Amino acid sequence: MSSVSSDAPRELADLAPLLLKKERSTATFDVQSLIDVAVGPRDVQEHRKRLLELVKNDPVLSDRDMIHRNHKERYENALGKSYAFAKLLEKHNITDWDDTTTVYTFIGEPLPIDVHRSMFIPTLETQMDDEQRAYWVPRAKAFQITGAYAQTELGHGSNVQGIETTAHYDVKTQEFILNSPTLTSRKWWPGGLGKTANHCVLHARLFLNSKDHGIQAFLVPIRDTKTHETLPGITLGDIGPKIGFQSIDNGFCALNNVRIPRRNMLMRFAKVAPDGTFSKPPSDKLVYFTMVKVRVGIVYFCGRALGMVTTIGTRFSAARVQGATGKGKSENQVLDYENQQLTLFPLIGLSYAALFSHRAIDKLYNQVLAQFDGELGVDHLYLLSQLHASASGLKAFLTEETGNGMERVRRACGGHGYSASSNLPYLFQVYIGACTYEGTKDVLVQQHGAFLLKCLRNPVPVSNSSSLDLLGFLQANPNSTCPATRPEQLRDPEILLTAFRVRALKALLRADANKNSLHYLTQASLAHAESIVLSCFYEGVVGVQDTKVRVVLLQLFQLYALWRIQANLGEFRLSNYLSSAQGAWVDEQVLALLKVVRPNAISLVDGFDFSDFELNSTIGRYDGDIYRALIDRATKDPLNKTDVVPGYHQYLKPLLTAKL
Amino acid sequence: MSSVSSDAPRELADLAPLLLKKERSTATFDVQSLIDVAVGPRDVQEHRKRLLELVKNDPVLSDRDMIHRNHKERYENALGKSYAFAKLLEKHNITDWDDTTTVYTFIGEPLPIDVHRSMFIPTLETQMDDEQRAYWVPRAKAFQITGAYAQTELGHGSNVQGIETTAHYDVKTQEFILNSPTLTSRKWWPGGLGKTANHCVLHARLFLNSKDHGIQAFLVPIRDTKTHETLPGITLGDIGPKIGFQSIDNGFCALNNVRIPRRNMLMRFAKVAPDGTFSKPPSDKLVYFTMVKVRVGIVYFCGRALGMVTTIGTRFSAARVQGATGKGKSENQVLDYENQQLTLFPLIGLSYAALFSHRAIDKLYNQVLAQFDGELGVDHLYLLSQLHASASGLKAFLTEETGNGMERVRRACGGHGYSASSNLPYLFQVYIGACTYEGTKDVLVQQHGAFLLKCLRNPVPVSNSSSLDLLGFLQANPNSTCPATRPEQLRDPEILLTAFRVRALKALLRADANKNSLHYLTQASLAHAESIVLSCFYEGVVGVQDTKVRVVLLQLFQLYALWRIQANLGEFRLSNYLSSAQGAWVDEQVLALLKVVRPNAISLVDGFDFSDFELNSTIGRYDGDIYRALIDRATKDPLNKTDVVPGYHQYLKPLLTAKL
User: Fold this and answer.
1) Active site located where (chains A, B) (predicted)?
2) What is the value of pTM for the model shown?
3) What is the pLDDT of residue B463?
4) CA-to-CA dists, residue B522 to A338, A415, A436, angstroms
5) Which of A260, A641, B485, B521 is the most buried (most CB within 10 A)?
6) Is the Cβ of A591 closer than 8 Å to some Cβ of chain B?
């Protein structure tokens, strides 16, 4: 364990920046080359930096105070940011969708127009027919209307088929009549629905001549576009504070005989003719395609969120010293403790794994999306079901692991991690909703697991057109055992990847043998998702051009994979795939790899290239000057405006002087 | 899987309360008898109910709004509650310490006088000599002074020996001169230190004639008791928002040549004579004895917090239906899904396990405390070190598992769990600090593990006077294997307890063989703590008089124990203590026991006897009327005061009408 040399400065506050500097000098690779891998080519990086500067220099958007306002204050403030965001885009003529997304991400706080951007517009784009799209999309993009995505209800979230809102077609007036027939049928949760949106995409059960035609999507005006007042027959409101997203008006909406024109149904796939004739969509899944898009985006979001948190945690652990190895010795960097490394390093690995996984699934998404313009054949629908299942599985697995990982890192930062000043609490709050929205784990693993079981029982002639190898694991040998004959062999990527494939297949066979057990189905889904993530991670690593970077990422891959075996050792020892001795080697190799990764730890997180502005953390600063930052931010707290707080005279003085 | 009968009411909102009623009719035991076990004798219960009514009827203390205020607003509000609390105690002549604690707990929100009550006064009581105690304690109890406990510094938390604050004795004036010599030496974190306290117990390194005499405790006036202004030489302030405890002014304090009289050092154990002669305390651990007390209290807090969360989660899961087993079938109670049971039921078990563990460790604490009045011999100090180690180990293990469990339950409640309306977010925020304060896991497992290693290497002649069997596991046979020959045998308590003892011993032997590895030491600490918790749980269960309750709690114990094996199966399969077949039996038995526990699930959480007032949750209500509660609370949200929010005119209208 290295310790701080005796000629270190006396002030720990001065030592901290020196320690980070020292860390950067021990890296075995060029950080810029890693940034090229993580962020993209240099011109992309430069372009991002220019956009970041625009946000940093904007008087409204540069606000970084996410912690002192209550829900109402945060919402009002975020409305102001929404306007500033639109003005900034206009001023600098930023129209490219990716660019606007980049700017939005830099703001670092979800805005009331979040769902308008991320779900409302994409839904209009993918679910409307050409004529509808031509009319509505430009209006939405120019903020002439602002929209919400109203699917979830008070009584139904996961089970979309249970939605109670109704849409009855009135052939005489060629209108749909929308109703919330029960208390639990009111829409509940949609972002922006309470106070901001004047339109929404509404999911309701369609009835034609009293015949049920399933859940369909409709475009519904909910507020007067002139006065912003709620339209007749509609009840709107905010559902109240939440863990995160305090800046957004997640809302409720009840409908009482609200009429909309026939052409307000989104008619790209399902259609209702003027006479009430229904045309079925080629797949039931198409109406939820926006959710698939969002799930794909969440995979990226996992990598980004965990990358930010591990950056803060690793820098803090390098800058912080605590506890000496012997009496009179100087104190150790917290990053030199094995437990701290064991918390941080595999999670740095997971951050990269999620980023690489996103690239793979995003490719599949775009492959499917491109086909929407042609005729949707069996092969295309098979690809869609692959995308749907794998997006579900990856979303369930990665959000869970990322959320748990973020909280582990935060706890590993002690009191300073508990303080809002570190920004770790805020990052967790704003992230953790991802475990819930767009499908909770328990629901998604069922969708994913059911797909895998179907593939196991009825091997579909694989079209080979998928950009992601989801089903290769079915070819593994479930009766094999791990061939490693000495500990270091466990680092062999082929041995590792095979171990995860065999585990996934065994879990699936167990699920098949226990058809009524959700537990085994869940295990099968998670094991498969894990195997896919590892493949994507490995594919990403071998694709890296720079040799030194590739070597270091490979070490991170090995550590991450072995750590996952360690965490699920019982499963890998099922039927002795790993022997007891091999199980003990796993521990040994994990600990050995921590030492290998240690000198590159800071540079690995520097590789994510998050700016101090984005991290917004006193303890995660690039320069390591954490103690002055902590004092500085605390001093500015509103409670410190006066020495004696106003409440003293009202409450504390009476308490201290009362005879008790 | 049972499903709702077809004559169920059409409104899910009406169905929910009926479902909870149905649940209560299936219990195999009398809930009141379980409450007797969990809460205590009937007269204690009645007394608690009377105290609860006082809080519920108090105009200030009955406030349940923990979610709409920001940090500053919450602090001011909590000052008001502090005053109301003191007045309530006075009015009803409540002076017994346990009673005041019960009232305080019912308030459900930490107050700025929290540390004054829980640490400041206890420290004066245990660390002051008789004369000091006689002078200061009555003043503190009557709120003539209000105090903080200032140990942690900006640069040092875990490593108390690293504290930089200094106390130099000036023999001429018989005063100590206190200084914060560096930026990182300022006190940082103590509750109430920023704005509320006018005194604090301050830990500083004592120097006599420039000779270092280690960390000692001093009573330091920090604010003028008349004007409440900060005293000369002292800088005070609030450190800013945190995850929880927004109602408290966690503060900072810097000292510049602040002088206090010699007799302001707490002199029960260490002493400084007027001429500067130092008398050593009999044990270095004594100065931190207050922390041990708090750790013991945290064990109880874990059981209580997880009990509240599992109550909310289980009731919600019983009242909520989601998804049908077949088309046209009515929907299933969420509690009927295996994954939901697997999330909830073992954690109900952990809640009871923590409550029983607290009783055991509290007994040991009181045993040690009683000895303080006599001479402290070797035997007593040995008992103190047992208490110190086991309180550390239990605190580290239980806070971690409880925190993780609370978050798992919250996620299992989907969107409604993410909403503040469920109160799950607040309960987590106010709890999760327990993983950090009074020692983080990584530090405590080292203290605990080091104690265990010492006992392994130098078996101390056990005095047998300890009320807790901490070291019996050393007698286990590390080379044995599990004797179960059929799956059901794994439920045998002796087989279960032995498995955990063998695992603890094996983990300790691994730690001993890998002396430089924190990882193995951590595993040893956690495995031992787990074994102790299980013993306490089992002891608690067999001590239950009511046969039906004992049977049900035993089932819960079995489920909990097997679930813990499942979660750590790799360790139990080390050297094949469990065979591969036995490993598979564990899964099987866990799933089988879920079905056994299912009919009693609601009554098991009813057994904690939390009132709706305490739970403060729309979805955890005793009567199951969750949907009306959700709508009702949302409707009252401040954002819903007007249909069109003020921000519309300022920001949204310009955005919607701007040409973009």
Assistant:
1) 438
2) 0.96
3) 56
4) 10, 20, 32
5) B521
6) yes
